[in-house]
Automatic annotation (TrEMBL):
Protein's recorded name: General secretion pathway protein GspK
One Pfam family recorded for the sequence: T2SSK_1st
Region entry Disordered, spans: 211-230
Coiled coil: none
T2SS protein K first SAM-like domain residues: 106-189
Signal sequence, start to end: none
InterPro entries documented for this protein: GspK_central_sf (IPR038072), T2SSK_SAM-like_1st (IPR049031)
Organism this protein belongs to: Acetobacter fallax
Amino acid sequence: MTEKPQGTRTFQDEGFALLLVLWTLGFLALIGAQTLATGRSAVRLGDRTLQRVQLETLADAAITSELFGLSTGAARPAPQWHGAPEEESTRIVVRSQADRNRVNPNFAGQTLLAALFSASGLPTDQSQALSAAIFSWHMPDVAASGATGSIGGQKTCTPTGAPFHTFDDLSALPGMTPSVLNILKPHLSFSQIQLPDLSSTDPAVRQALTRSGISNSPDQKPDNEQPEEETLIGVDAVATRGAYRMNRHAEVVLLPDARPVPWRVVRWETTTRHED
């Protein structure tokens, strides 16, 4: 049997070496493609994040400028969109209004609440019972004397005197079922300070004011007048740059005499964010 001379390579050895090289190159190419794709995704994500942060900052600056104008008396609430100082290619619009559109169950009397519930579509007896339950909830002294509402012959609640902060709090009242709560939600606010007036954009609230006679109260004041102290103001700002748009919303209580910041923030949030 003839032995293969030492130091020589066969065709099979060379083919295996070539195949190993090709496999290695293919693997390296796959790693390179994956790294490139990951890098591009990271760049796009970084660009979106940068755009989002910049637009949010500009929108918040527009809201702050609007609030300073309102608190110092240099401007009045303007519910129509109007331009704010623009930054390079960014377009910014802002609007503001005193929140007098809804009813705060913590401040409203039983008569107004009953009229609102009735105007929202609830039966008269149910409206009276629910309004009595709410009134007795934050008026424990009155409730203790026997002035409590009832639904189906049962006592509606155990008065605590604590204010309602959320709709979950309100749902604790007997008779305040999820379906009833969904009917009432659009007409209620837990942050509004003043009673609403007939400038409200809510037809049910306007109808309730008329029925209850609250619309003739001396505290009624249209939104275009100078806000009083401790007025809840809602401000919206939209910053747009190309395909990017940022909508920011703030609700604050104006405190004109407070320093250094003449307002207290109730809510400050992003309402809409869009990138194509």
